Every structure is written in structure tokens, then in C-alpha cells.
């Protein structure tokens, strides 16, 4: 994230910029007048601009006007003397966010920048949702891809789940959970790949999805080939995890790099190949379609730490069959259900699915159902201990109380600086404390809590999506639906249908 500070007084400019860099993980650029500030803005495109008004060469208001012609998303704050405040009010027509009255203090700068960072994060989230819709429209030829993918090279990967209804107890209504798993896998793999790679996951139908990887053109052919190899390797690893860990046989077709302006034509080619592909056949493990009632009971007992009863239920669970493959498949289905249920209960992902699944015993021919049950119960005990240790990390009194405040008043959540004032704590320190203790920003925690409330509300009979959105403080129903899907992998309507299935 980047911040531009424009101030003609050198000592003030250098001192404030140094303090901002010290307090926040920001790239800070400085300029001594509006003309220099405008050039830096064009070059680095900062998300936040702090600017004085009265400066030589070009004043802050003229620079603000020109910035607004280039960007509507940049958050701008005017720094002004009290005597100039009426003059500064003309900046309102340029959609200035706020004013800082001179002489500014380190505390006022801290509080303002902290609030602006949170605003940028919310804007980025909203932009990501809009970008997802835009890329989906481009993929399907509804709009031209030239505006977004001009001078970009793209790899398109198409994936189809084969024989969906016969796979390990999964049904089409579980497609949201599968996409949730795919996104987690991609995010994990991208962490060790080139950070220059961006991607978008587009759901085509209950058994078809597309991954669009895109990056800038490279002058070096060797570098282009290396990035292409990394993306293809990433796709292979994703397919491997889905097939070997979730028993989801995938027909997978991908392109090499192509000009992003040809996205729709490449989509048609890949779609045709997906329909005609008969080479990627898999041995499919058939299982009876279940409503997961047993898994729900086992999870409820595990959550209450009733391990003796868990073991008793597991004996009956694995007594269904003597087949090694089917017993292993039962283990996969059980572990996947427990993983998803745990995340929905706690509102955050604490373990990767692969790490979670690898904790469970691998079924051997000589294992009786009793031995499988005992080993699985021991695994659940260890997982409980591990998660409790994770939970202890977020028991800082202030964090605990703020989270309780948010849960109790989820429709009227305050700004971070308001909670900081309530609990007499520095806002910057509080922001850092959330990341340190929870591994997430304040805004992420607010979203998690609201999405948990949303799931509980949507479970209620006759719940209406727009009413749930309003109760949670979202007055834009479309934004709420997009946010819910980003967090759960399903739209609110899809979530309700899934819940109805298990009633």
C-alpha cells in the first residue's frame, strides 16, 4: 500500500513521512509542491494522498483536481491552517475525504492514517468483487477483454469434475465447498510461486470451473517460459491434491500463454476441448449417496469433547463396509466434513485441509473397525489440543472485549479508532495487535463475525437475503451477496439450499 505526502516545509515533510513509515507498513513518497506530487502520483499510483494547500508552483487544490481526473478511488486528505479552512472547503467538490487542521500532531496523523488504511482495505475488497464479475463477463464474451488484459499474457485452465454424483458422497450442492477447497489450494501454492502472477477463479457450473492466470509481458523469453512452467506446475499440484486427497477426478485442460485480448476465443477453444476430452478417464470409487447425518452427529460429539461417544459412533460408522478403499473413502468424507464444519463454527481457517486430513490414520487391511475408531478418536483429541492452543493466542483482553462488542452489536460496528478510544489504547497499536494476535486485520475480523451471524440467520426458516443484509448493517444487498460468496464459496441462496438439504 502506498501513501503520498505533499508539503513544502522540508522539516515537517521529512519528520511526518519518517513517523508514518515507522508506524505503518506503507511505501511513503514525498513531494515539495503539487506539480512534483502529481508526477509521483502518475508514476506510483498511491492509494492515499495527504497534501498541504498553500505551496509554490502548484497548490494542493489544483493537484487534487488533477488527481481526481486520473482516479476516483484515491483517498485524499487536506492538511490546512484554520484560517484557510473556508478556502479548503472548495476541495469538497473533488471528493476529499477529510481535513487535518494545522498544527498537526503525530497522534492525529496516526489516527487518520490508521482509518485510511482500513478504508483502502474495504475499497480493495469491493474492487476485487467487481473485478471477479468483470473477468467473468470477459471470459464469456459479454464485454471486451482488451481494457483489462491489454499488454498482458494469460493462461486459461479449464477443470471439469467427472461423474460428480458417484464421488465420495459429494453431490452437486457441495460445489461451493469444492471451490472453497480449490481457492485454498491455489492460495497456498501461490505463496511459494512468483508473486507477479495474478489469478481469478470462475465457476461455470456445478462441475466446471476456470482458472485465469495473468501477468505482464516479459522482455526475456526465458523468464516467460519459467513463469509458464510455474503456472502449469501449480495446476498439476492442484489437480493432484483434488484427486488424491478428495477423490475428485478432474478432467483438466490448459493453454500456454496467449494475448489477453483473445480471452473469449480461447475460452471457446478450451470449452470445446473439455466437451470432447475422453482421454482423462479415472477409476471412480462408488459410494451410496448419504445425507451426512452420521458425520454431523460425530462433529457435535467432538465439539463437546465427548470422546467415548465419538469412538462408539465411529465403530458403527466404519462397520458399514470391510472394503479398504471404501473405508478410506469414508475417512476422506468424514475428515472433509469435520474440516468444513470446524471452519464454519469458528469463523476462520486455522489449518489447511491437507494438514488437517494428513492427521487422520491411513486405513490398513488388518485394521478392525474398533482400531480405526480408536486411532481416529486419538486424532480428534490431538486436533482439539492443537486448536485450543491456537485459540489461546487471541485471548488478549482488549481483543476479546472488542470481538464481544462486535458480536453483540453486529449491525452497528464502530471504526477501529472508536474502539481504541473506548478501551484507552493507541489506535495504531490496536491495529497491529489484531494482526499479531489474530493473524487478521480488524476489518477481516468484523467480516468473519458478520458472516458467522449471516450463516445463522440464513439457517432460519423463511429468511430473506436482503433482510439478513440489512440486519448486519449492509444496505447494498448485492455487495453482501458477493462478500458472503467470497468468504464461504457460496451465494446466500446456495447456502440456504445446502442447509435445506440436510434438514
Provide tags for this entry.
about 10% strand, about 500 residues, five-stranded antiparallel sheet, about 55% helix, globular
Describe this structure in words.
This protein is of the alpha/beta class and 503 residues long. It contains 21 helices and ten strands. The protein has a five-stranded parallel sheet, with helices on both faces. The longest helix is centred in the first third of the chain and has 34 residues. The relative contact order is 0.08. About 3% of the residues have low confidence.
Secondary-structure blueprint of this entry?
Elements: E1 2-6, H1 10-23, E2 27-31, H2 34-44, E3 48-52, H3 60-70, E4 75-80, H4 85-88, E5 98-101, H5 106-139, H6 146-149, E6 152-161, H7 175-190, E7 198-205, E8 208-216, H8 221-246, E9 250-254, E10 258-259, H9 263-276, H10 293-303, H11 307-318, H12 324-346, H13 353-358, H14 369-392, H15 397-408, H16 416-422, H17 427-438, H18 442-458, H19 465-471, H20 477-488, H21 492-501
Parallel strand pairs: 1-2, 1-3, 3-4, 4-5
Antiparallel strand pairs: 6-8, 6-9, 6-10, 7-8
Number of strands: 10
Widest beta sheet: strand line-up? 2-1-3-4-5
Radius of gyration from the CA trace?
Answer: 26 Å
- How many angstroms separate the termini? 46 Å
Task: Characterize this entry briefly.
This is Stage 0 sporulation protein A homolog. The protein is of the alpha/beta class.
Amino acid at each position: 500500500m502506498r501513501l503520498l505526502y505533499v508539503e513544502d516545509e522540508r522539516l515537517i515533510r521529512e519528520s511526518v513521512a519518517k513517523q508514518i513509515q515507522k508506524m505503518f507498513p506503507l511505501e511513503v513518497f514525498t513531494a515539495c509542491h503539487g506539480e512534483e506530487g502529481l508526477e509521483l502520483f502518475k508514476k506510483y499510483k498511491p492509494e492515499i494522498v495527504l497534501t498541504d494547500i498553500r505551496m509554490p508552483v502548484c497548490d494542493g487544490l489544483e493537484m487534487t483536481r488533477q488527481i481526481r481526473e486520473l482516479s476516483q478511488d484515491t483517498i485524499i486528505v487536506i492538511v490546512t491552517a484554520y484560517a484557510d479552512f473556508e478556502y479548503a472547503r472548495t476541495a469538497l467538490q473533488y471528493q476529499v475525504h477529510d481535513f487535518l487542521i494545522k498544527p498537526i500532531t503525530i497522534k492525529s496523523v496516526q489516527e487518520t492514517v490508521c482509518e485510511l488504511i482500513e478504508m483502502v482495505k474495504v475499497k480493495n475488497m469491493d474492487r476485487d468483487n467487481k473485478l471477479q464479475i468483470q473477468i467473468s463477463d470477459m471470459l464469456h464474451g459479454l464485454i471486451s477483454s482488451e481494457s483489462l488484459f491489454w499488454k498482458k499474457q494469460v493462461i486459461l485452465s479449464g477443470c471439469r469434475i467427472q461423474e460428480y454424483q458417484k464421488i465420495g458422497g459429494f453431490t452437486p450442492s457441495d460445489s461451493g465447498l469444492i471451490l472453497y477447497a480449490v481457492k485454498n489450494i491455489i492460495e497456498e501454492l501461490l505463496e511459494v510461486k512468483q508473486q507477479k502472477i495474478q489469478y481469478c477463479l470462475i465457476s461455470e457450473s456445478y462441475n466446471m470451473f476456470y482458472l485465469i492466470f495473468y501477468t505482464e509481458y516479459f522482455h526475456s523469453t526465458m523468464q516467460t517460459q519459467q513463469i509458464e512452467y510455474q503456472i502449469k506446475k501449480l495446476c498439476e499440484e492442484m489437480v493432484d491434491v483434488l484427486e488424491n486427497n478428495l477423490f475428485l477426478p478432474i478432467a483438466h485442460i490448459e493453454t500456454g500463454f496467449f494475448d489477453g485480448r483473445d480471452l473469449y476465443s480461447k475460452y471457446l477453444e478450451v470449452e470445446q476441448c473439455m466437451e470432447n476430452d475422453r482421454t482423462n478417464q479415472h477409476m471412480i470409487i462408488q459410494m451410496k449417496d448419504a445425507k451426512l447425518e452420521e458425520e454431523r452427529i460425530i462433529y457435535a460429539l467432538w465439539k463437546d469433547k465427548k470422546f467415548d461417544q465419538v469412538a462408539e459412533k465411529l465403530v458403527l460408522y466404519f462397520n458399514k463396509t470391510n472394503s479398504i478403499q471404501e473405508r478410506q473413502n469414508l475417512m476422506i468424507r468424514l475428515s472433509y466434513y469435520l474440516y468444513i464444519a470446524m471452519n464454519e463454527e469458528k469463523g476462520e481457517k486455522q489449518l489447511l485441509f491437507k494438514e488437517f486430513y494428513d492427521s487422520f490414520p491411513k486405513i490398513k487391511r488388518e485394521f478392525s473397525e474398533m482400531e480405526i475408531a480408536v486411532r481416529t478418536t486419538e486424532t480428534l483429541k490431538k486436533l482439539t489440543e492443537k486448536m485450543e492452543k491456537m485459540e489461546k493466542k487471541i485471548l488478549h483482553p482488549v481483543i476479546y472485549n472488542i470481538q464481544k462488542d462486535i458480536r453483540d452489536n453486529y449491525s452497528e460496528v464502530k471504526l477501529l479508532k472508536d474502539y481504541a478510544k473506548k478501551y484507552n489504547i493507541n489506535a495504531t497499536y490496536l491495529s497491529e495487535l489484531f494482526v499479531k494476535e489474530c493473524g487478521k486485520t480488524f476489518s477481516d475480523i468484523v467480516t468473519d463475525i458478520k458472516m458467522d451471524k449471516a450463516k445463522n440467520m440464513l439457517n432460519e426458516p423463511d429468511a430473506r437475503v436482503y433482510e439478513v443484509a440489512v440486519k448486519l448493517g449492509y444496505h447494498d444487498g448485492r455487495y453482501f451477496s458477493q462478500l458472503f460468496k467470497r468468504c464461504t464459496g457460496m451465494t446466500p441462496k446456495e447456502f440456504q439450499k445446502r442447509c435445506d438439504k440436510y434438514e
